[in-house]
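Justification of resources, computational component.

The compute hours requested in this renewal are based largely on the per-chain cost of generating structure records like the one below. Each record pairs the submitted sequence with a full structure-token output. That output is archived, and it is also reused by downstream analysis tasks.
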Amino acid sequence: MSNSTGCAACKYLRRRCAKDCALAPYFSTSHPERFAPARIIFGATDVSRMLQNLAVEQLNQRANAIASEAYRRVRDPVYAVQSNLAETQAQVALHSVQQQQHQQENQVQLENHQYNLDNTQQFGLDQGPSSFQSPPNFP
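The structure output for this chain reads:
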């Protein structure tokens, strides 16, 4: 990828970006904010090493993981990824509770509907206006 600007890593290291630069497809100069946290946390050389000797299918996933973990570590140095996991677990628990509440509400509505149907059948109210008998005519 030998273009005039190179990748974010080569630009940071102030070197010419080689054609076979491992970082160029994943850390372009158009998004330096993606590489900056990875450089701060892991260092440019180690990021390059982490992407070496991987299958082509895994490179994009690994680069995304490196950038994501580094961003979280910069944002929250103490808990980093664990804070994100705790937040996700809390959201899952909240959605689970909401789903249970909806299921209970639906069950109550179904039971009420069945109760109303049983009452209308028991008292003969389900026959409609055609079964209504008019009162006898008085003179």
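Residues 81-122 form the longest helix (42 residues). DSSP finds five helices and no strands in the chain.
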